[in-house]
Amino acid sequence: MRRFLQDWAHLLLPAGVLIAGLGVFLVIRAAVVPKSFGEYGHYRGAALEMIRQKPVSYAGQDMCVMCHDDQAKVKAAGKHATVHCEACHGPLAKHAEDPAANVPKLPDVAVLCKRCHEQDPAKPSWFPQVVTAEHSGGMKCTECHQPHSPHIATEADAGSGRGK
Amino acid sequence: MMTRRDLFRIGGKMLVLASVGATLEEITGAAPASEAYKMADHWWGMLIDIDKCIGCGNCVRACSKENNVPNGYFRTWVERYEVPEEGQPKVESPDGAMNGFPLPAPANVKSFFVPKLCNHCADSPCVQVCPVGATFLSPDGVVLVDQTYCLGCRYCVQACPYGCRFLNPETNTADKCTLCYHRITQGLTTACCENCPTGARQLVDFKNPKDPIHEFLRHNKVQVLKPYMATEPKVKYHDLDGAVR
After folding, report:
1. Of the candidates B18, B29, B52, which has its C-beta nearest A124's C-beta?
2. CA angle, residues B225, B70, A47, in degrees to nearest 5
3. What is the pTM for the complete model shown?
4. Are residues B233 and B119 in contact, defined by beta-carbon separation less than 8 angstroms?
5. Does the structural domain A55-105 have CATH classification 1.10.287?
6. Closest approach of chain B CAs to the CA of A9, in angstroms?
7. Over the stretch B63-99, which tens digit does the pLDDT of each residue have?
8. How far apart are CA A66 and CA B213, in angstroms?
9. Looking at this predicted complex, what is its ipTM?
10. Cβ–Cβ under 8 Å, residues B41 and B210
11. CATH numbers and ranges of domains, chain B
12. Where are the domains of chain A?
């Protein structure tokens, strides 16, 4: 019996080391693995909420319309109906939150209109395009076109049903 | 030569860093789950209509501003293809089309624009290769990166068949399109879709029975990029030319 114990005694130490090691592992694991890991899958569930907290720069057209009824109505009836406000005016979430403290600069027409309307064979053929230098004769586009309702009626319009 | 002491020292530092990260998450993750939005009710993707894209680059600028994308890196970009009847197509994307395409394409070859972004694949290789679970497919179908957990090992950058990921030099973590997760989960559309003048890009929710995508898919032929990769992309292209890779 004594002999037997003696044989086993030397196993107690490694067993103790193993158990202590496991304990240390579990403690470290509990400290290191974030709480929400595995909530939805093999990742930190809390990351979703963190990503959602990012601030918004573009308020969205629905916002602008609430205060700028005039421009919105004109635009909705014209050829730029599908072009949202911030596509031309840039990100204005800060302005929408506090209009007086963040008065926006008006867009630079010289680069604005070209970017969309400069002639390019890669553009779909239905899209109205002009060789801007020739077409405008060096004048600002807004000398002739209203940015919120750009169509200029021509004789060809009579009876053709083209909008504003 | 790394000594055993060095190894322990580095290991110890990493342990401390990791537990700081875990504590951080307890602080930042403490915000209450935002009201009303139920992940289980959505399955996000995008519809891109090539015949509507005018290559103005509004989407690229909007994405960059909305998401503070560092200069020279792109979460979305626009390519211009010139496809001759025979031979290789020519593909251009000057500065990602940040300022559109200043020079017109030649008139004598077929040419068109192709907006690109993360395809938010339902079965994505980038998610599979991440060694630490820092990139994942959210329950509502968006492939995201956990910036606090990413090691910056770039496996995912290599794994993406579409070249949609990069290592952000400011954070040293993997970066990519989030489908404007912070916007779509509060009822806004993505920054690129909000600023697309022709509706060439449309955010779609495949789980919403009222989404116009269902009507569209019934009547139109659509394609995904590199279908042979079997990644099940959720960005669908209408009117896509066979030359596009």
Report:
1. B52
2. 75
3. 0.89
4. yes
5. yes
6. 32
7. 999 999 999 999 999 999 999 999 999 999 999 999 9
8. 28
9. 0.85
10. no
11. 46-119+200-244 (3.30.70.20)
12. 2-53, 55-105, 106-164
